[in-house]
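Task: complex structure prediction.
Instruction: return structure tokens for all chains below.
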Amino acid sequence: MKKFLIKSFLISTSLIVLLISVNYFIDPAKIYDSDYEKKISNILINGNFVTNIDNYDERILQKELIHLMKSSPEVLVFGSSRTMLINSSFFPKQTFFNNSVSGASLEDFIALFEIYKENNLLPKKIVIGVDPWLFNENNRQVRWKSIEYYYMKNKGLTTHSFPFQKIRQLVSLSYFQSAVDYLPEYFLNKTEPKITNRTHNLKNTKLTDGSLVYNSNYRNASLNIVNSKINRFMDDKIYSIENFSSISDEIWFEFIMFVNSLMNSNISIEFFMSPYPPKVYDKISNEYPNVLKTERLILKYAKKNNIKIYGSFNPENLEFDNSYFYDGMHCNEKGIKQILNN
Amino acid sequence: MSFNSLDFAIFLPIVFLIYWFVAQKNLKLQNALIVLASYVFYGWWDWRFLSLIIFSTIADFLVGQYLRTEEKQSKRKVLLWTSILVNLGFLGFFKYYNFFLENFIDAFSLFGMQINANSLKIILPVGISFYTFQTLSYTIDVYKKKLEPTKDFIAFSAFVCFFPQLVAGPIERATNLLPQFYKKRNFEYHKAVDGMRQILWGLFKKVVIADNCAEFANQIFNNSGDMNGSTLVIGAIFFTFQIYGDFSGYSDIAIGTSRLFGFDLKQNFATPYFSRDIAEFWRCWHISLSTWFRDYLYIPLGGSRGGTRMKIRNTFAIFLVSGFWHGANWTFIIWGALNAIYFLPLLLTNNNRKNLGVVAEGKLLPSLKELFSMLTTFVSTVFAWIFFRAENLSHAFRYIEGIFSLSILEMPLLNNRLNAFITLCLILFFLMIDWVGRNNKFAIENVKKIRFLTLRYIIYLTIALIIMFFGNFEKNEFLYFQF
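Output:
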């Protein structure tokens, strides 16, 4: 027994040490490099665009940015990757900042607003990107935990949360594979954020208004490639709504409370509903009826409270075909422009 | 919890240490620990369905107790049928209720009769087809007086819910597994190392072969209408290796894990894709299920003892039921029927037991004749798997129609050619190792015979690193959980 345990321990320990070291030191998503988001936020606050920024904690970046702001932008966007392309040109003569974070959930919005509040920065208007998964309690979105402290503070609670996600990522084999793929860039030091004065670059570019311009490959993909991306997207369960068995009353109530509290603070609210490509929407209509229910609920609530709505989940309402999309769930610049200008 | 999850990686060593260090001196305590660990393991998915296992366990234990004292044949029969009805009742309700309802409605509508009945939203309890068959084997064997009914409820519970094989087999016979719970188990170094070796190989099959093949198989099957013939062929081949890697990988991990706890489970796969005919294939594929059907269905129906008509009837019965066991869908039934059609000519010409030994035994490579037989069997199997994987029958027929079109001459359309190429290389590596180890219970069993310790460790580390570098670690459940 002793021999077996020693051998098993030695072999598994050596593999785990290899795994943890690669994940920690190569760190392709900059989970353990806390300075990375600070570097990006300093570049942006100093009035420069920043490119070469593939992987970082978007929530931490937003936190750093808000802390560095001297005055509040008049218009804010709270949303997910589906609202990241909204930029200041759609809100002329107003100061503007886009705080969208990938896979946003309601907790993100509440936490972000709390950070603004903590810094005595209150906007005049907030455009909220309403994604269907916001109301799905099984959406598996946990990334908001990076700014959990602010969410809990908003609720009058304190948190001493243990960084489970960070620790879990240390032993993640898929993170290990990303790290191995990332090795050449790591050793050639190609991972540092770069200042640029161009909005459209080879890599993703964050603009000073917080909006994003995607990398050239993604941006310039042909319609054929977009079509195949949409097909592939449909092969899997639809992002974050796979177990959307019902609209969570609890989340819906929290959402209404949040929006009402903003309106009570004299902040004007607008909703942005990003569409899905036609084929994806058909699948959603057939297999995820709660998405349609969500849309109806939002429309009803918005009408009752006089809230302006941009867009719709249904591309038919906007007369969108696949040429308005980058992939199975993201509108391209043309699409965003059409939605906001109508 | 799933074998390929972090949860299981934490769960297993904890149970192992308690089992050998805390509970070692007391057999009852060890068995009780197995029951507890198995319930935690199963409850990780959905604790509500534990009640089904517990109910099944109590029912079959009681039936066993009554069968011990009951001598009257008619009463013994009633007891047997009670057990069969309880177990198949659960299985029928949870797995087949909606299928029968929908088919009855369709059948009546053919005669112009409209029936209004709503299907139920029923969640299929994980592993229900496996543990019900396992407990049934107990009552049937006790009824036939092949097995003495147990008085030890804890041992019986442990036999029903033994966590390594609870959710996807191998389906163990009470005659093999139950007595192992009565005997004192001592830790055996070589058995445990053998278990670890088999777990390693099972993980390789699951996360490297099955899950990488699944990426392409899903992509191609889900968009088969837009794919050309050559891509569809590749899709079917990828699925062929997905299902083999997935299920045999599970069996390897289950058998390996059992060995860590001192148990020996039956071999469930014996390199089936090297079979020279379909009869050999079915002796090598999901052996525990095939033999279950042979012993509890085929032989009681008369087996191959009767005339030609009886042979045909029994062969179709066993294959159709086997297909239906996999799922409540006509695709599985057609898959079973297709295999019966492949099998019948061999049975009727008395050639079904021609290839009993290992192919090309003692040789490095097969002869041309053997290679040809293996390839034709493999192609027939790939063809049948199309029905198994398709969403419904029309999907399967459209898929096959797509293959037999001129577009089969076009270049395959694959989204990520580099990954597809890497996956094909990994399949070749897997086949090579499987070929070299075709004499063994699992492919890398013979590594233990290598005298040089360093070389042995180099092999283990290479496999571990291949898993780390090339494994697919998205959350992929084992395919057979759904059956």
